[in-house]
Amino acid sequence: MDAVQGQTVRKTLFLIRHAESMENEKLGSLKKFFHSIGRLELPEWAHFYHGVSIVGEPSLVDSTLSTKGKKQVERLTEILREENFVDAHGVELVMHSPLIRAAETAKAVFHSMPKETADHFPRFVEPLIREKFISEWVNLGGLDKRIADFAASLVERSEERIVVVGHSQYFRRMLGQEKKMSNCDVWHVELEIDPASKEHRWVNLRKLHDVQVDDDQ
């Protein structure tokens, strides 16, 4: 529903956190190593060496998907196809962060549709929803402004039901959650925004799908 005579604008979003990236995988290996030490267990040094290799990761900021991440995308595609997700939920647009891991995960939505539909389905790359910048870890004001700007930008869009593929820290701050979404989780949330004051709130948050695959680590 577009803004009419000051009426509250409502949008339905289907949030998908990107699949596991190489950065996620290496940080996970370090976590396993130090978790073993904390439990006074003999750690696996392979986890340590794989983890610290993150220092030499050429795409640390814009990381590609890990092997597990690619499997997660395949599983997500199956789940969305089985549910006929796009039609069943009346999705009108797929929006994703410009980072590689989000763009690669967004392919699951398109691959879940018939090819003739996917070839022409609306797609939009949104810089406002990229992951938290280093500077925003110190000063959350910048991140909060991006989130507010993103909500306001949706007022200008005609689509009412949108898939948004993005990042855990961004979504966590946006929704006020204590925990991060897991990779490839699918959540439903509704946005209510006053077009005059630009005040917004996120309501009716619920998880729709939990994507799990075998852990190769």
**Unreliable residue stretches:** 47-60
Helix count, DSSP H or I runs of 4 or more residues: 9
Helix content: 40-55%
Q: Which radius of gyration do the C-alpha atoms yield?
A: 19 Å
Topology of helices and strands:
Layout: E1 9-17, H1 22-38, H2 45-52, H3 67-83, H4 85-88, E2 93-96, H5 100-111, H6 115-118, E3 123-125, H7 134-138, H8 141-155, E4 161-166, H9 168-175, E5 186-193, E6 200-209
Parallel strand pairs: 1-4, 2-3, 2-4
Antiparallel strand pairs: 1-5, 5-6
Helix pairs in contact: 1-2, 3-5
Task: Using brief descriptors, characterize the structure shown.
alpha/beta; 6-stranded mixed β-sheet; 9 helices; globular; His_Pase_superF_clade-1; His_PPase_superfam
Description:
- With 217 residues, the protein is of the alpha/beta class.
- It folds into 2 domains: 9-21 and 64-209, Rossmann fold, CATH 3.40.50; 22-62, no CATH class.
- 41% of the residues lie in helices and 18% in strands.
- The protein is built from 9 helices and 6 strands.
- Strands 3-2-4-1-5-6 form a 6-stranded mixed sheet.
- Helix 3 runs parallel beside helix 5.
- It starts with 8 loop residues before the first strand and ends in an 8-residue tail after the last strand.
Outline:
It contains nine helices and six strands; from the N terminus they run E-H-H-H-H-E-H-H-E-H-H-E-H-E-E.
